[in-house]
Design brief:
Elements lengths: L3 E6 L5 H7 L10 E8 L2 H14 L7 H9 L6 H4 L1 H10 E3 L11 H11 L4 E5 L8 H8 L15 H11 L3 E7 L13 H10 L8 E5 L21 E3 L10 E9 H4 L6 H5 L9 H5 L8 E2 L6 H16 L7 H19 L20 H7 L14 E2 L1 H17 L64 H7 L12 H10 L3 H34 L1
Parallel strand pairs: 1-2, 1-4, 2-3, 4-5, 9-10
Antiparallel strand pairs: 5-8, 6-8, 7-8
Length: 536
């Protein structure tokens, strides 16, 4: 069976490509080969290029990489050590701004070459930047004087996706974006998503036609006497339904070229997307990791200063009147006091940077196998940020409250003594400004906002009293532990938050490969039959 060449655009750090490149073809080979990946942001591109380099080695990453991760120090000069592998990565991973750089200068020729070399066995994946479509981004735009959606180039970057789709004419494509794309409009009336679907179908003169497939449609579960046709909401995929420990709901549209889709059942690809029902949780991926302490953003930040500051914060919270009903108040006080005593008994204060590895014993096997690398002795990108002393008290309160009540506290649940000095604290607009992730379920959606302050991503362990590290956010996003994010910590958070969960991408790739493979097998059977008929 042929290997499909993949073009990944708006690639970020490479979440989609990581999943697709791991799909087995069943003969010891890979089903998909990443031929080209494109990302404009410098540090995300550096991450993308490094991962491309490592993929050149198959499943056996170079020893020098493990030495670099495990022992630290300067990153090796990969070009000097492995010039051919590095050259292949440079050729594959481009820093290129779609919509700005003239495609005639180099991109179109590259797409034409990929199409010719693969004999049409190509797949296009990716999705345009989501800021213009997200609900948060649109709310922010409302505050911009004289803002007009029709003048915002981010609204129309999807046309770059369409242009490349027309040029490459792949066998299939995968387009991902935020849910807000479903309701975004340019004039208050015409929804962008309706036009996107028309363009993806190829409803314009001379365009290649595609049949659009929803991976997890809801409407087919309802009484419908007409042939199944996905509705806009059918394109929403809920990552937690596919073994990802995160409630991440995104629009994912899969298209199969019309000539390949002919004769296939309407929902054939959706039927191949097996729900794993792992009920993967925050605790599965975080509770076994090396414990860390937070930092102090103001003043000295030694272990002694940190322990003293946190002890004061915990003591204050343990004695506070929460406003909870009597029984829950008693449970809260008892749990807070127990955490305080355990904290006081720490003989060795954790460091701010990880040493060692680990994952929960009850983590589902396929998620564990996906994340863990037995050659790692420590986890990359597992360091903490600094916090204000007052925030440490709020983090401790939130974590204990969640254990007792079973949910993260809203702003109205915080005692007045813990209320921050924010003018909008009591307005209800930011009721979840401090949000702890619950161990017993999937996390909330990891977004690039985690780069700001960490308040939305408080660690569930009250004693650690901190926000999530980049590596912890990456685990919730199902990036393998050996996936290194480049740039400073803020840039790393942004990369993780903007990515498609690689494990979800793997399941999409599995399903797509199965249907493409089945189609090719049918063609081979027809060819063999024709050959036998000719012999007769």
């Amino acid at each position: 069976m042929p290997t499909y060449s993949v073009v990944d655009i708006f690639a970020g750090p490479g979440g989609l490509a990581e999943g697709f490149s791991s799909v087995p073809a069943g003969d010891g080979k890979r089903a998909f080969h990443i031929a080209l990946s494109i990302e404009k942001e410098k540090t995300a591109h550096a991450t993308l290029r490094l991962r491309s380099f490592l993929r050149q080695f198959g499943d056996a990453l170079p020893d020098e990489y493990y030495t670099f991760i495990n022992e630290g120090g300067d990153e090796p000069d990969w070009n000097a050590i492995y010039p051919e592998h590095w050259a292949a990565a440079v050729e594959e991973a481009w820093q290129f701004e779609l919509g700005e750089e003239d495609p005639e200068k180099r991109l179109n020729d590259r797409l034409d070459t990929i199409r010719a070399d693969s004999d049409g066995h190509t797949v296009l994946i990716g999705g345009p930047p989501c800021q213009a479509y997200s609900l948060v981004g649109r709310a922010r735009n409302l505050g911009v004087k004289d803002y007009k959606a029709e003048d915002d180039p981010k609204h129309f970057l999807y046309t770059e996706y369409i242009r490349i789709l027309d040029r490459l004419q792949p066998a299939a494509f995968v387009m991902e974006n935020v849910k807000g794309m479903l309701s975004s409009s340019i004039d208050g009336e015409n929804r962008i998503f309706d036009q996107v679907l028309r363009d993806l179908r190829g409803e314009r003169p001379g365009a290649t036609g595609y049949r659009l497939i929803a991976l997890d449609p809801r409407s087919r579960r309802q009484l419908d006497l007409t042939p199944f046709e996905p509705r806009a909401s059918d394109f929403i995929v809920r990552a937690e339904d596919f073994g990802v420990p995160q409630a991440r709901h995104r629009v994912i549209v899969v298209g199969l070229r019309a000539d390949l889709a002919e004769g296939l059942p309407q929902s054939s690809l959706a039927d191949l997307m097996v729900k794993h029902n792992l009920q993967a949780t925050v605790g599965h991926v975080l509770s076994g990791m090396p414990k860390l302490r937070s930092g102090l953003s103001r003043g000295p930040d030694g272990k002694d200063e940190w322990k003293q500051t946190v002890e004061i914060a915990m003591t204050f919270v343990a004695e506070i009147e929460t406003g909870l009903p009597n029984k829950e108040q008693e449970k809260f006080s008892a749990r807070a006091a127990a955490c305080l005593q355990a904290f006081k008994g720490l003989n060795d204060v954790p460091a701010r940077e990880a040493h060692g590895v680990g994952i929960a014993d009850d983590c589902p096997a396929d998620l564990r196998d996906w994340l863990v690398d037995s050659k790692l002795e420590t986890l990359p990108n597992h360091t903490t940020r600094g916090h204000m002393a007052s925030d440490l008290a709020r983090y401790f309160f939130a974590a204990v409250f969640a254990e007792v009540v079973g949910r993260s506290p809203k702003a109205s649940d915080y005692p007045d003594e813990l209320a921050p000095e924010h003018a909008n604290w009591t307005t209800g607009k930011f009721a979840d400004r401090f949000r702890v992730q619950l161990s017993g379920g999937p996390s909330t959606t990891v977004t690039s906002h985690i780069s700001k302050d960490g308040h939305y991503f408080i660690h569930p362990d009250p004693i650690q009293c901190r926000s999530l590290s980049v590596r912890e956010a990456a685990r919730l996003q199902t990036f393998p532990d050996n996936y290194l994010f480049k740039g400073n910590r803020t840039q790393q958070y942004v990369q993780v938050g903007n990515a498609v969960p690689p494990l979800l991408a793997r399941w999409i790739g599995d399903a797509l490969w199965t249907i493409l493979n089945a189609r090719d097998l049918d063609n081979e059977a027809v060819t063999e039959t024709e050959a036998l008929d000719h012999v007769d």
